[in-house]
Amino acid sequence: MMEKFRKRVNIWNDGTGGPRKGDWIAVFVFVAIMTFFFCFLKDFKLTVTQSLTFDSCLLNGRLKDFYTIVNKQALSGYYDSVWGKNLSAGANYSIINYATLGVICLPVYIIGKVLHVAIPFLVYELLLKLLFTAAVFYLTKVLADICKEVSMKAETTKWVSFCFLTSPILWYGLLMISQMDIFALFFMVLGLRAWLQGKKKWELAFYAIAAFYKPLVLIGLVPLFLLREKRIIYILRDCLVSVAGLLLQQIFYGSDPGYQRVQKYMSGLYSFWERLFNAGIPTTRNVYTANSSYFILLFVLICIVAYSIKKVTMPLAFGLPMLSWLAFILFVQWHPNWLVYMVPFAVIMLGFSYRKKLFCLIECFFSIFWLAVCALGWLFNYDNDLINGGVISQLAGLHTDGGDFGTIYPILVQKMAGIPVDLYISLLTAALVGWMAATVMDLYRHWRGVTPNEEMTAFERGPVLLRSLPMILFMLYSFANCFIS
């Protein structure tokens, strides 16, 4: 009996030929659930409503005044009572984000103005969520193109694409939270494909657009620039072109008092630079005291290694950016959606890995404690109450009420009070360090030309699906709370 059971398990676990039809159907179902039942409505509604203000500015010829107008609306409490009457509800993203959302929503916005009807916000939410999901599906195809360009086998290409679409970071950080990082991720991946296809102008154009949306993409791109190019003038060119959009925005809006005001306010409230130096080596020089940032130290080291390597290999091209992102997550205070920029590098490295099961186990372990830290660190934001903002959730009246702290926080802090909360971040840190160590070991094996063990490098269905299990359980828990509470 046991032998027969073991044989069936082995047959099911066999990854030969890539994911099966049932695997793809299952992941499409889960993606649909995340699309229609989850959304971090607090941020999403604010940004989309500001993008409708962009539409108003566009139609009235007042694009130059966009940031000033949004500031006035924020201070009047126009956007939502949850934000209060302050500049926390100001326009703190680059203009391309609002322009993109605004243009997508423009036809519906115009219909509402022409017919003199109030368009329910659910219409805009559904439109954008469908677009985000369509972009993720298209990126899955682009990842497959990248795999072919780096000469991966057809079977490996299928599994890497599947791993991208089942990435717990992608699920939670993008499809469930529903932040605008999809746009920067989209153009960054298009840039990677253009690079591998030898389309230099398109590559830099895509990188420039991606960085215009979110400069965070440069964390992975700068080591890549240094790895593939050794001429300083060309490295500077690539870096300058990549930030061209941000420079143009500064020229266009730099003299706008509204833009200056919100930038100053957000720098004091939410300084990104301060985040870089929160974790570091305390350093004192006479009366000067500061932190030597752990992240900057590691990032510079990775960049030096990238520039020192003469022979460019594909594992290095994806492994070094991944290490940069792991260092960032390890030492810098992040938001869950920021982590999505690591996903393309992580899944490609999984394809190159000598220890695929190990990578899958690490990612599963990471996801468990990532969820815990999100619930502990962002009270009543990144908890299972994400289900309250979903399109179908609102239409069907699905609601979970966790009080002031969500529902996961009280479980971890009160019902499991015997476990110190420091343990969760410690185990998350352990997962990140293990991920970095496993990546470095694989890069070393590729550099030495070690012959891979076919059993260890083969994809298996169980470990791949295990990566997504924490997020699936999180979704089930969210639905259960809707009926229990």
Structure explained in plain terms:
The chain is built from 25 helices and two strands. The protein has 485 residues and is mainly α. It has a two-stranded antiparallel sheet with strand order 1-2. Helix 5 packs across helix 6, helix 9 (181-196) runs antiparallel to helix 10 and helix 19 (356-377) packs parallel to helix 25. The two termini are 43 Å apart.
Helical percent range?
over 70%
What global shape is seen? globular
Strand arrangement within the widest β-sheet reads: 1-2
Give the count of helical stretches.
25
Order of helices and strands: HHHHHHHHHHHHHHHEEHHHHHHHHHH
- Provide the β-strand percentage band: under 5%
Arithmetic mean pLDDT: 91
What's the alpha carbon Rg, rounded to whole Å? 23 Å
Our measurement of the CA-to-CA distance between the termini, rounded to an integer number of angstroms, reads 43 Å
**What are the segments in which pLDDT stays under 50 over at least 5 consecutive residues?**
none
How many β-strand runs? 2
Major sheet characteristics: 2 strands, antiparallel
**Which structural class best describes the helix and strand composition?**
mainly alpha
